[in-house]
Design brief:
Number of domains: 2
CATH class of the largest domain: Alpha Beta
Structural class: alpha/beta
Largest sheet: 9 strands, mixed
CATH architecture of the largest domain: Alpha-Beta Complex
CATH topology of the largest domain: Spore Coat Polysaccharide Biosynthesis Protein SpsA, Chain A
Helix content: 40-55%
Radius of gyration: 20 Å
Distance between the termini: 44 Å
Length: 303
């Protein structure tokens, strides 16, 4: 049986796609298949994929773009045959020993079995031409779902590997609704942890996350709006660790609004909207908002 099924959706990103596929081809661990899902690309992606000669590649062509990668990833999951699913975006690249290290970590934890593994990445900013480290985890054991909902997304998509049998048994898929665009991966991790998945983190840098203007998460306002929708859904519909749902929502809503305020101040230099948000949410949440504001400042000073 194939050990890894690598899931790679792409849309109009041919040059980066070529590099991503080459980074897969260079892997020292060879028990894998690569499922490339062409999500309705209008450039020359379809022609390029048609002429690929790699025996390990499966190609799925979708007739139209679906506004986000969730549908493409779900199609790939349906077509996968590996024991483990590895996610890779078409603008990200892996180091050649990535799969080898992941496989050794999985094999070494057969007794203390995990369902999800994640490593670190190096972020390469194409515009600023600099690099910085992206650290995955940690998540407190037995409180994975609570941690992910309260603290936020601690996993990196192109660094994550999930047990295929686990997601099939629990019928977990990426949510394809428009309100989940750019945060469908976060919701996916939440659903895994809600179903008692166990997470393992590998403290190694095994790939590059390329930041550029086409990244969906670069649309910060849309990302935050959809993120709050997902959090609201989990707080009021799914989580059971906190019976005071309104209080929990006030804390989490305040936390993310404060992050957005500082984005308006520091990135957009839009002080008018930033000050308006401070006034609006102080009036709405009072002490909770002030407390989260100071917590944000303390976190930033520690970093």
């Amino acid at each position: 049986m194939i050990f890894f099924s690598i899931i790679l959706p792409t849309f109009n990103d041919l040059e980066n796609l070529k590099k991503s596929i080459k980074s897969v081809d260079r892997q020292t661990f060879k028990s894998f298949e690569l499922i490339v899902v062409n999500d309705g690309s209008t450039d020359k992606t379809k022609e390029y994929l048609k002429n690929l000669k790699y025996s390990f590649v499966k190609i799925v062509n979708l007739s139209k773009n679906n506004g986000g990668p969730a549908t493409a990833r779900n199609k790939a999951i349906e077509n996968s045959s590996g024991e483990w699913l590895c996610f890779l975006d078409s603008d990200d690249f892996w180091f050649e020993n990535k799969l080898e290290i992941m496989s050794k970590s999985i094999e070494a934890n057969q007794i203390d079995k995990k369902h999800v593994y994640c490593h670190n990445l190096i972020l390469k900013d194409k515009k600023l031409k600099n690099k910085r480290r992206l650290i995955s985890g940690p998540i407190q054991f037995s409180k994975e779902y609570e941690n992910l909902l309260k603290i936020g997304n601690k996993l990196l998509l192109s660094a994550t590997c999930v047990n295929n049998e686990f997601i099939r048994d629990n019928k977990i898929r990426f949510n394809e609704k428009r309100k989940y665009v750019s945060v469908e991966d976060y919701d996916f991790w939440l659903m895994l942890s809600l179903n008692d998945a166990k997470f393992g983190f590998i403290n190694k840098f095994l790939g590059i996350y390329l930041k550029h203007e086409k990244n969906l998460t670069n649309n910060i306002i849309l990302h935050k709006k959809n993120l709050l929708y997902v959090i609201h859904h989990h707080v009021f519909q799914l989580q059971k660790f906190d019976k005071n749902k309104i209080k929990l929502w006030k804390k989490l809503h305040s936390k993310h609004i404060i992050e957005l305020i500082f984005i308006y101040f520091l990135r957009f230099q839009n002080y008018k909207i930033g000050c308006y948000l401070i006034y609006k949410y102080y009036k709405r949440y009072n002490i909770v908002f002030i407390s989260e504001f100071f917590n944000f400042i303390i976190r930033k000073l520690k970093n």
